[in-house]
Design goal:
- The chain has a single domain, classed as outer membrane lipoprotein receptor (LolB), chain A.
- The protein has four helices and twelve strands; from the N terminus they run ααββββββααββββββ.
- It has a twelve-stranded mixed beta sheet with strand order 7-8-9-10-11-1-2-3-4-5-6-12.
- The C terminus is likely disordered.
Amino acid sequence: MTSIARKNRMIAAAVFLLTVGLSIPVVAEEPADLTAKQVVEKLQQFYAGIDEYKVTFVQTTKHKMFSGRLQRAYGTLMYKKGGLMRWEYNRPEPKLFVYDGKVLWVYEPEVPQIFKGTADAERLRRALAFLTGEGRILDQYKVRRVDAKKCGFEQGIVLKLYPKDKKSAFNHVELYINPGDFRVERSVVVDHEKNRNRLDFTKPLTNSGLSADLFKFIPPPGVPVMQADQPTTPK
């Protein structure tokens, strides 16, 4: 896979997973009779009150080109109100995503190379709008509740989200929701080729006073910076 293709796949995954991959504790309620719309509303009503969070993730990728083989990566996600975010991958190889509110930076230190994307940043800002009360999942996606038992998540809630935008890079997204506090424990992005990109979230920490410097990026001296001014989709 080329560097550009890797970058495109990473960007596309980040755009959606950052919109839904949250672990936000809320007041427990009886989930059995809730509709998909009601579940979504219970998630979203708390977003405006969350200033920042930090969560550990495990990413598992299943690609049809590598049948029977799973690829895993481990890291930490940080988000701060205003759309600021930072993804730190530490295994199996270091990678860094930083969105500073205007520009999306993607740094691969082992190559080494840096991607700087203003068009991707605007796409990311729109995808994150509902987190700050500027947009809503139901405006962008058709949502239905599916049988959690058939999904291997018997004690939880599973939603499937289908993009209304026919040009979306994704076929659908699956959300695995804890029925006790309505936090998302897992999100799975499925593309049009049925490749699956799964994130499992643990150790959520909200409003812990993350430094603003975490959401700034200064390219290291001597590392080439590649400009990506056009919106990208996975290859």
